[in-house]
Design a protein that fits this description.
191 residues; alpha/beta; Dihydrofolate Reductase, subunit A; eight-stranded mixed beta sheet; 22% helix; RibDG_C; DHFR-like_dom_sf; 5-amino-6-(5-phosphoribosylamino)uracil reductase activity
Length: 191
């Protein structure tokens, strides 16, 4: 069975975005960007893959993305309706009932059961959970792996890594990648 991987960036104090969903305060130096393109190019939006000249590189980790409505919104705000054209795209939303693009499917109810169905598909590639915090909280029982990109910055406030009720869930640290810039990538597997 393939895995659901929560691949997400956070500040040192555990915020994945600012109070108004800002992410532009996360520093991305060249060494770190090079690593992201090489190791997790599948998780980059299509326009970033084109800029990095990897848009014709076959997917090696993911073939599907699941994201919340607020994660999808920045693309819509700039007129992009299919931000991850190289992946099957699912947006979990209770407010958006129709998709603005035939390549994007809206999932309106029971995201946990839906994702369990995706995980049961026969594919050598995993499912990328892009966020946000509420969706990650709802899908916590199905998350097999978390790849947490920790940026060397304190946000002070914002959107946490998860929003859910009290639900202690054990993960084991499988790998750590460090960068001279202070960036750290923590790879956790479900215990």
């Amino acid at each position: 069975m393939r895995q659901l991987v929560y691949y997400i960036g956070q500040s040192i104090d555990g915020f994945i975005a600012g109070p108004d969903d800002e992410i532009d305060f996360f520093p991305v130096p060249d060494e770190y960007a090079t690593w992201m393109f090489a190791q997790y190019g599948d998780a980059l939006p299509s326009h970033a893959r084109q800029l990095g000249r990897i848009d014709d590189v076959p997917n090696s980790r993911f073939d599907t993305i699941v994201m919340g409505r607020r994660t999808y919104q920045p693309a819509l705000d700039v007129g992009i309706t299919s931000p991850y054209a190289h992946l099957r795209q699912y947006v979990v939303s209770t407010t958006m009932t129709e998709s603005p693009d035939p390549a994007v499917t809206i999932v309106g109810d029971d995201p946990l059961e839906f994702v369990r169905g995706l995980k049961a598909e026969d594919s050598p590639l995993d499912v990328y959970l892009a966020g946000g915090a509420g969706l990650a909280g709802a899908l916590l029982p199905a998350i097999d792996r978390m790849v947490v990109k920790q940026y060397p910055i304190v946000a002070g406030a914002g959107v946490p890594l998860f929003t859910t009720g009290f639900a202690p869930t054990a993960f084991e640290l499988a790998d750590v990648q460090t960068f001279g810039s202070g960036h750290v990538v923590l790879d956790y597997r479900r215990a």
